[in-house]
Amino acid sequence: MKIIITQKEAADKGIWTEIMGMFGVTKEDEVWGNEEFILTEEQARQVGLIK
Q1: Dihedral of CA 27/33/37/43: which sign?
Q2: What local confidence, expressed as pLDDT, does residue 26 receive?
Q3: pLDDT tens for the chain, residues 1 to 51
Q4: Do the Cβ atoms of 49 and 22 come closer than 8 Å?
Q5: For residue 38, what are the β-bridge partners?
Q6: What are the CA-CA distances from residue 44 to residues 4, 28, 29, 30 (Å)?
Q7: From CA 13, how far away is CA 15, in angstroms rounded?
């Protein structure tokens, strides 16, 4: 299973910092609110999106 989350959704859920680390995004990178990130099931569990 794959989970898709946008930058805005991740920020709203308070997990944006963790997503940044998973995908190598830095604070200097330009990221749009609707930019999508595809998580594996294990990654989604790590950040608490699924149980």
Answers
A1: positive
A2: 95
A3: 999 999 999 999 999 999 999 999 999 999 999 999 999 999 999 999 998
A4: no
A5: 4
A6: 9, 24, 22, 23
A7: 6
With b for 16 or more beta-carbon neighbours within 10 A and e for fewer, the 33-44 pattern comes to eeeebebeeebb
What pLDDT, on a 0 to 100 scale, did the predictor assign at position 17? 96
Full DSSP string of 14-43: T-HHHHHHHHT--TTS---TT-EEEEEHHH
- Which residues face 8 on adjacent strands? none
3-state secondary structure (DSSP) of residue 6 = strand
**pLDDT number for residue 22:** 96
